[in-house]
Structures are given as C-alpha cells and as structure tokens.
Amino acid sequence: MLSRRRPASAPATPAPARPPRDPRQLRRVLAYARPYRGLLVFGLLATLISSGLNLIFPLLFGRLIDASFLRVGATDTGPLDRTVLALLGIFALSSLFGAAQSYLLAKVGAGVVADLRRSLFSHLMTLSPRFFAEHRTGELTSRLTADVGTVQAVTSTALAQAAALTFNIVGSTTLLVVTSPRLSLLTLAVIPLVIGTAIVIGRRIRTVSREVQDRVAEANASAEEAISGVRVVQSFTAEDTERGRYGQGVLASFLASLRRARLQALMGGVMSFLTFASLALVLWYGGRLVMGGDLSPGGLVTFLIYALQVGATVAAMSGLFSQFQEALGASGRIFELLDERSDLPEPARPLPLARAEGRVSFERVSFSYGDAPVLHDLSFDVPAGQVVALVGPSGAGKTTLVSLIPRFWDVTGGTLRVDGEDVRAYALADLRAQVGLVPQETLLFSGSIEENIRYGRPDASPEEVEAAARAANAHGFITALPQGYATVVGERGVRLSGGQRQRVAIARALLKDPRILILDEATSALDNESEALVQQALETLMRGRTTFVIAHRLSTVRNADRILVMEGGRTVQDGPHAELMAAGGLYRDLYELQFRKEQEERAELVPGMGG
After folding, report:
1. What is the DSSP letter of 359?
2. pLDDT of residue 206
3. Which of 27, 59, 60, 327 qualifies as a cystine partner to 154, CB 3.0-4.6 A?
4. Of 329, 213, 322, 191, which is closest to residue 266 (Cα–Cα)?
5. How is residue 136 annotated by DSSP?
6. How many Å apart are CA 370 and CA 91, to the nearest integer?
7. Contact present, 515 and 358 (Cβ < 8 Å)
8. Burial grade of 608 (CB within 10 A; 0-12, 13-18, 19 or more)
9. Are 560 and 577 in contact (CB under 8 A)?
10. Residue 546: phi, psi to the nearest 5?
11. Is the CB of residue 391 less than 8 Å from the CB of residue 551?
C-alpha cells in the first residue's frame, strides 16, 4: 500500500534510542485496572482473608500435637475433636476464599490485557507511515501479543501474590516472635541475606528478560516477513535462507532464555539452601529448648510451620520479584509505543471539509526524508476535476508527490493546498475522507468481498455495494463465485486474480466516493484482458474527480488533461500529450523508447511480424 511505502531514495532512519526502564511504568499498567477496581478490591480482600486463615492453621496444628502427645492415656478426646473440626473449617474457608480470589483477579487480568491491547492497537493506527517505515511489522505484533501477555500476570496473580506474601510475612514473623522470641532471632537473621540475594540477581534477570523479549520480537519480525512474502521466497528457492534467518533469531532468543534460566536457577538454589539451612538450625536449637522445658513440642511444631511459611514467602517473593522484572521490561516496550507521537500533528482548530471541490495546489513544495532530498521546489495548480498524469523514470519522486496529498507525509518546504487551504489546516480524517487510493499492489483484507468493498463505508447498503461492483466491472465475476459477495478472499486477497483484486479495490473506492483520486500504477501488473476491464472501471471511477495517475505505460495516460514529467524530484515538462510530443525532450524520448519496446514485444508474440 502507498501508506506503507517509503519515499523514493529515502534512507533507513535508525529507531530512536529506548528510554531507561522506570518502575513507574508498572503504575501505568495498573492504571488500566481502574475500570475493574471493584473486582480488584474484592479479589484482594479474598486474598487477605485466605492468607489470614492460613496463619491460624499452625496454631491449631500445634494444639493438636499437644492434645495428642501431652495427654497420653487420657480418655477425653473433646479437645482433640474440636481442634480437628476447627482445622477442617479453616481449610474449607481458606479454599473458598482462595477460589474466589483466583477467579476475580483472573477476570481483572484478562480485562486489563484486553483494554491494553485495544489501546495499543488504536494508538498504532494514529501513527504516521514514517513510523511504520522504521519499524518491522513482526516487532509490533510481538508487542501486542507476547509483551502484553507478560504484563497480564502483574494485574492478576502477581498482584494478589504480592498482597498475600506481604500479609503472610508480616503475620508469620509476628507469630514467630510471639511463639519463641529466641528462635525468632535465629530465623530472622537469614532474611536480609535472602532479600539481598534476590535484589542482586533480580536486577540481572530484568536485563536478560528484556533481551529475551527483544530477540523474540526480532524472530517474529523475520517470520512475518517470510510468511507475507512466501511467493517471493519460493520463487527464488530461498527457503533455506529464510529458515537460517529465522533459526538465528530463534537461537538468539533461546540463548538469552538459557541465560535467564541460569540466573533464575541460581536464585532458586541459593534461596532453597538458605531456607533449609535456617530450618536445620531452628530444629537444632528448638530441640534444645524442648529438652530444657522452655518450649512444648506443639510450640516447636507451630514455630517450624511459621518458619517454613516465612521461608516459603521469602522464596516466593524472590520469584515474584523476577516476574515483576520481566513485566517491567515488557511494559517499558509497550509504553515506548504508547508514548510515540505522530509526526503529522492535528490542527488545534481544524477547518471544516465536509465535501471538497478537489482543487489541489503545490506552492514551492519540497520534501526530504531525513537528510535525503526527494522533491525540489514544485509549483503547479490542478483545477477540480482535472486528470493529471505523472510520468518519469523510477526514483523521480512520483509516488512521494501523491503521498503528500492525503498527508501520509508532510511537506518539508512550501505549501500544499486543497481547495485553497493548507492541508495541515484540516483534520486528518476529514482530509483523507476526500482522497481515494488505488495502488499497484492492492491490499484486500481476509474477510469477504462485500466486507472489502464496504471498507470505506461500513454503513453502505447491499444495493450500494452491488452498484459500486457493477460500475467497477466486478459484479460479473463476483456472482460467478460459489458464495458470491460472501466469498472469503483470503489474506491479502490471495484467492482472487490480480485483475479481480483491482476491480474490488476500484469498487471500494467508488463506494467511498472521494473528490480526489490517486491511481498509482493501477494496471501495470495486469495482463491485457484484465487491464482492459480494469481500465474501463477506472474511467468510470475518474469521472468528475480530480485524478492523479502514475503509470509507466505511457499509452495509458495519453488522454490525460495534463501530463507532468518528473526527473530527479523536479517537474521538467508540463502539458498535454500532443504538445509534449511536439516539444520533444524527456517525454518524447520515454514515449518512443516504450513504443519501440512494445513493438518488439508484439513481434515476439506474433511470428513474422516486423520481419
């Protein structure tokens, strides 16, 4: 499509440097949870209740031990029975609130991710073609899928875990101290070492996680290019090249994933050792206290369970810290896109443009892509309804020139006017509603033929869709298809021929009913029969509209009201066909060269001709 085409001779511009990662990015992610704050509050409340109930369990278990072992020979089992019933009740309530927490927060996470994806995609649609010329499609889709999926955990399970773990560690630590102050000092001495290890290794995990996400995005971009261009790949038997390129991307992401796995394994191993070593010390010292009569067996069991909870909580916090680091890297990449601003600013007070006349004026217009000049000091006026052909050698700037009319790019010098007003004075949507485009490589979407025709006017009636198709010489082949207008065209319209795709695109433009029409090599890739049908449809489409036609076949533009001959980003000739032929110069040279070439092609097709 024209909107995705980089101007002729434009060099690639390196992507801007990424801003430093900022933990405040996670706050921006959590801001997307505001519409679900009721569910979030109830989910967190269920989490805290479940965690609180789990803190009661060690106390009851300790009582159960004392009721069993310190009352050997007793016949009254009431205390034991009541303790077991209390334990069963605690387990049931904890499971109930745990299930509620899981469902509520999963719903919040799914909603946040859906909103974030919609917001990101909607924002991408506002960015200019310059942005898409500098970013690969696979990289952008990776942001929408993998990165947003990574962030999902923060707004669902990770958030609940953070609340639960904070509550657990505070509650368990308090109950540890209450149960045995001396044992608590031994246990808590290990915690700063565990937390310090988590922070040091966690920082490295965050860096490597970002690298993993980058490598996955690059591999996705490579795959997307190969899949979308599979015909070219296969025609050049370049399957091995693409396999190698994608394989290198996958290998890079695999190696980065291994580095992350090693760091995570290191963190897990260190945490596990510190946790169980501390428990061994607690058992040793607690056993001495029991033997000395300073602690009951049930009290030691209670303390051990609380110590296990503290150790498990600290270990879980280290894993959670790692998860937050990954989410921080992913959110940074997401918000880089959300913070991207279009280089096509909307006017503060746009002028109304309900129905344009179609007059287009170039006043000393120049355009450069980066440091590469493409157009130089162009000045000409096109009255409403005039058909203007743009011809010239490749790289002359023809496509770039017509790209300026719907503001796919902004002029870097001079002024481009529509109906006497600078195009930058109109809202982009209003301006582009007046411009229709039929490019050489027609892009159809993967829905039905009817959906593709009504793309520019979703509210069009079936009768209006059919009328547009008839005017585009498309109704005949559409009704001959088994499913007619409901026929699914496949990705990029692959199930239709080139001529059929072009006629559907022309019907789409007819239904839009633009005042300004751009035909960019609309028939150059077609055979003679298809070209004749498409040319008839184009003539219908051009009636009463200001039309800019780009064509390499000069025989197709002889009837234009005016021909602009371009070379090196400048107009070197201007006039109708007969006048330019009489004047000589570049146009006549191009025309005669092409005429001779067409004669030679006919001679090859018809034996004996030209001999």
Report:
1. -
2. 72
3. 327
4. 322
5. -
6. 67
7. yes
8. exposed
9. yes
10. -75, 120
11. yes
Q: Residue 486's CB: how many other CB atoms inside 10 A?
A: 13
Asked if residues 520 and 4 have their Cβ atoms less than 8 Å apart, the reply is no
- Report the distance separating Cα 466 and Cα 485, nearest Å: 9
pLDDT at 548: 92
pLDDT tens-digit series, residues 246-259: 888 888 888 888 88
The CA R_g of the chain, rounded to the nearest whole Å, is: 35
Give the count of beta carbons closer than 10 Å to the beta carbon of residue 237. Answer: 8
How many residues are recorded in the chain?
611
Provide the H-helix boundaries in 156-292.
157-179, 181-188, 191-228, 230-235, 239-291
Q: Which amino acid is at 478?
A: I
Report how far apart the first and last C-alpha atoms of the chain are (Å, whole number): 43
**Per-residue confidence (pLDDT) for residue 5, from 0 to 100:** 40
Question: What CA–CA distances, in Å, run from 226 to 5, 8, 125, 443?
Answer: 18, 23, 23, 17
C-alpha to C-alpha distance for 140 and 218, rounded to whole angstroms: 10
> Which candidate, 377, 403, 340, places its Cα nearest to that of 548?
403
Q: What is the DSSP letter of 547?
A: E
CATH class of 436-513: alpha beta
Q: What interhelical angle do 148-155 and 78-124 show, nearest 10?
A: 140
Q: What pLDDT, on the 0 to 100 scale, is given for residue 231?
A: 67
User: Residue 95: in which H helix or E strand, if any?
Assistant: helix 78-124
The C-alpha atoms of residue 534 and residue 498 are separated, in whole angstroms, by 10
Q: How far is CA 161 from each of CA 157, 215, 266, 288, 320, rounded to the nearest angstrom?
A: 6, 29, 22, 36, 8
Q: Is the CB of residue 363 less than 8 Å from the CB of residue 414?
A: yes
What's the token pair of residue 392?
């010239």
Per-block mean pLDDT, blocks of 10 residues, the chain (611 long):
39 41 67 81 83 77 67 60 78 84 81 85 85 80 78 68 76 77 74 72 77 80 76 74 84 86 81 74 77 76 76 70 71 81 86 86 90 89 91 87 91 92 90 85 82 85 88 86 86 78 85 86 61 73 85 74 90 89 86 68 50 39
Closest CA to 310 of 440, 146, 183, 466: 183
User: Which pLDDT score, from 0 to 100, does residue 422 have?
Assistant: 92
Residue 268 token pair? 């897990």
**608 alpha-carbon distance from chain centroid:** 58
Write out the H or E segment, with its range, that includes residue 436. Answer: strand 435-439
Q: What are the domain boundaries of the chain?
A: 27-338, 436-513
Q: What CATH code is assigned to 27-338?
A: 1.20.1560.10
Q: pLDDT value at position 381?
A: 93
Show Cβ contacts of residue 304 under 8 Å, excluding neighbours closer than 6 positions. Answer: 279, 282, 283, 286
Read off φ and ψ for residue 506, nearest 5 degrees. Answer: -65, -40
Cβ neighbours of 338 (radius 10 Å):
15
